[in-house]
Every structure is written in C-alpha cells, then in structure tokens.
Write a structure and sequence with these properties.
With about 80 residues, the chain is α+β, with helices and mostly antiparallel strands. It is built from 1 helix and 8 strands, in the order E-E-E-E-E-E-E-H-E. The longest helix has 13 residues.
C-alpha cells in the first residue's frame, strides 16, 4: 500500500508511553508502554491509523487498549 501511494509513514511496532515511569517510596516504577503491530498515515482519509492483530485478547492487552484509546483519541485504532 505504501508503494502504491495509498499510505505513508508505515511503522512496525511503534512504541507508545501510556504512563511515565515514576518513583514511589524510593523505588523506581517502569513506564507502561504499548506497541501495536503497525501504524501508518492514510492519505485518502488524512488520518493516522494504528492496527493491532490479536489471536487472543489477554487481560493486560484489554487494559492497555483502554489506556491507549483514552490517551490518544485522535489516532484511529483498528483491531483485527
């Protein structure tokens, strides 16, 4: 699709920070990240689209998906 000019800026497994790292009672807590399968810019609709292909939806995935949708409402999300 990119070679045909339908999409551009194709990225494989882009990394999104859902929550920054922080310190609590002197202990370091790592950031919560989410890496969907790919992301691209659709030239026709002029929208950024993120795609995640799932065979099985784990509980962790369901929480990260909700956090992603809340934090990045301007990015269209497709789940296959």
């Amino acid at each position: 699709m990119q070679e045909q000019g339908i999409i551009k800026e194709l990225q494989l497994q882009p990394k999104f920070i859902l929550q920054d790292s922080f310190r609590y009672e002197g202990k370091h807590n790592r950031a919560i990240t989410y890496s969907p399968d790919f992301q691209f810019y659709d030239i026709e609709s002029q929208k950024r689209i993120t795609v995640d292909v799932k065979g099985f939806k784990t509980e962790v995935y369901k929480i990260k998906r909700k956090l992603f949708l809340y934090k990045f409402p301007d990015i269209n999300f497709i789940e296959v």
